[in-house]
From TrEMBL:
InterPro entries: cNMP-bd_dom, cNMP-bd_dom_sf, RmlC-like_jellyroll. It comes from Bacteroides fluxus YIT 12057. This is Cyclic nucleotide-binding domain protein. It comes from the Bacteria. The lineage of its organism: Bacteria, Pseudomonadati, Bacteroidota, Bacteroidia, Bacteroidales. Pfam families: cNMP_binding (PF00027). PROSITE patterns: CNMP_BINDING_3 (PS50042). SUPFAM superfamilies: cAMP-binding domain-like.
Length: 195
């Protein structure tokens, strides 16, 4: 069950490792506008083909983006503490989302509605800049993932994941990691046994 909570304002003290001082100042202003939720694991926050109307900031926990292809659940990105998550294309264009968003672990989230968020970025250039930087970062991540699936073997993709994102290997169930790498869980077990 999703519960509305009041997070202690001192969360921002621990958030310093995720954000610059400018971003923190902006987040403190967003704090009053956002709703704060405690969400159980395996909660779908956005369904594929629905129009996104919220932006999430992960305070605790992890989420994944996934879609269905021929009845198979395909995971293509993970998010952790400090990440902003939404179907940005759907949020911006008010078009159906191409994927679903789900919690993997129990999560503490700050949630801001689309219109409130876009009103804030119109008034606050530092927030607009932070938002644009997050979009560019997301685009880079998708480019790297796309190229990795073309150029690298599953073994190389796994080694790259270990090197660049050890949190994923430690915190995410193996079947989601296998899906993310584009292999079966059995193949992933073989690759892991070689390490």
């Amino acid at each position: 069950m999703i519960m509305t909570t009041d997070f202690p304002y001192d969360w921002f003290g621990t958030a310093e490792k995720f954000f610059s001082s400018t971003e923190l100042a902006v987040l403190k202003q967003i704090h009053a506008t956002a709703k704060h939720l405690s969400v159980p694991a395996k909660t779908v926050l956005l369904e594929e083909s629905k129009v996104a109307d919220r932006l999430y900031l992960i305070r605790k926990g992890c989420l994944r983006l996934f879609f269905f292809n021929d009845g198979k659940d395909i995971t293509f990105q993970f998010f952790f503490e400090g990440d902003f998550v939404a179907s940005f294309d759907s949020l911006y264009n008010r078009q159906p989302s191409l994927f679903s968003l789900e919690t993997i672990e129990p999560a503490e989230l700050s949630v801001i509605k689309r219109d409130d968020f876009y009103n804030l970025i119109q008034r606050m250039p530092p927030l607009r800049q932070a938002y644009e930087e997050k979009l560019i970062e997301r685009f880079r991540t998708y480019q790297k993932l796309f190229l990795s699936h073309i150029k690298n073997t599953p073994q190389q993709r796994y080694e790259e994941l270990l090197k660049e994102h050890p949190d994923i290997v430690r915190r995410i169930p193996q079947h989601y990691i296998a899906s993310y790498l584009g292999i079966t869980p059995v193949s992933l077990s073989r690759i892991r046994n070689r390490h």
